[in-house]
Write a structure and sequence with these properties.
- The chain has 159 residues and is of the alpha+beta class.
- The chain has a single domain, classed as Gcn5-related N-acetyltransferase (GNAT) (Aminopeptidase, 3-Layer(aba) Sandwich), CATH 3.40.630.30.
- 21% of the residues lie in helices and 29% in strands.
- It is built from 4 helices and 7 strands, in the order βααβββαβαββ.
- A 4-stranded antiparallel β-sheet has the order 1-2-3-4, with helices on both faces. Strands 5-7-6 form a 3-stranded antiparallel β-sheet, covered by helices on one side.
- It is globular and about 35 Å long.
Length: 159
Amino acid sequence: MSCIIRELRENESSLLTGFLYEAIYIPEGIEPPPQNIINQPELQVYISDFGKDKDDNCLVAEVDGKVVGAVWTRVMNDYGHIDDKTPSFAISLYKEYRGLGIGTMMMKEMLALLIRKGYKKVSLSVQKINYAYKMYKKVGFEIIDENEEEYIMVNYLKE
């Protein structure tokens, strides 16, 4: 399987709606929420008017001409927010493409892009029971805070 990581094209920003839903962690045995959950304001902050701000960055993974994953950052007041200069990270892959290393590839490419753009750090929040937590640690994120359910993690970007 050949996978390329590339920037999101202007005419593809609507793809983020589906990837936002896919980014919701659903533990095994739990009924998925309805699709319209992404219309809630605390989730819309991730995608509303995406691409209009200089701090909006998005890369997608394409396999055989099909976009199968996205990683995007923006400075926003979300679950992983730490300050008004640090972008928050979101990443999503269709289920059938998980566990193949594509997520790690996307994350590494986004971290490199953020370094090139001069950012000093990037943050995210992840549920403690989410297996992706291990991938985030592997690419350099560290826990800086936590609550009962989530870790707040930061990657101090280094060249």
